[in-house]
Amino acid sequence: MTTLRCERVLQLTLAVIKPDAVAHPLILETLHQKILENNFIVVRKKDLWWRRKDSESFYAEHSGRFFYQRLVEFMSSGPMRAYILAREDAVAHWRELMGPTKVYRARYTAPNSVRALYGLTDTRNTTHGSDSAESAKREIAFFFPEFSVQQWLDKEEQRFRAGHVEYDPQREIHTPLRQS
Length: 180
Ligand code: IDP
Ligand code: MG
Known about the structure:
Strand 5 (165-168) and strand 6 (173-176) form a beta hairpin. This protein is an alpha+beta fold. Helix 3 packs across helix 4. The protein has one domain: Nucleoside diphosphate kinase-like domain (Alpha-Beta Plaits, 2-Layer Sandwich), CATH 3.30.70.141. Helix content is 42%, strand content 19%. The two termini are 15 Å apart. It has ten helices and six strands. It binds inosine-5'-diphosphate (IDP) and magnesium ion.
């Protein structure tokens, strides 16, 4: 059982472990532990493998950039893992944990960040995180079309915020405690 208790409304973000990290089971496990150690609630977790068109569509905002082809090929090159995470200021906290986009810069400016520690190149930089609450909503819908952010905020958020939550080690997600 966890004793997480928060004062302010929880925020959701989308976090993705990219194919370079999923390819290494120890790195994948380490990243999962980091998520737990940093007091994120794991609301959903999904392992998936994108087709190229998924990759192109998710990163459409970057089409035309010099790294776009490389990026879409990489993101559909192997399995990845997506999470819906909850926390106070989840968007900012996850981005801080990831570190700067470019691995070389991350190693200098945020040496303990995920991208600094595990990133391989500017493209293969281990993780993705939504950059705003609006992006999080859009990106959660992209990865988890069956999940309703609004319904979660209305029905589940309060229980999670009050700490009525336990970690299910089998499914590797947090679940609300059944009310007694
Ligand atoms: P972010 O992932 O930190 O939000 P974005 O600028 O949104 O960064 O870029 C999306 C992804 O595109 C990055 O995570 C990285 O994989 C790739 N990318 C961004 N800039 C470069 C670059 O200069 N060279 C190679 N790949 C890049
Ligand atoms: Mg981005």
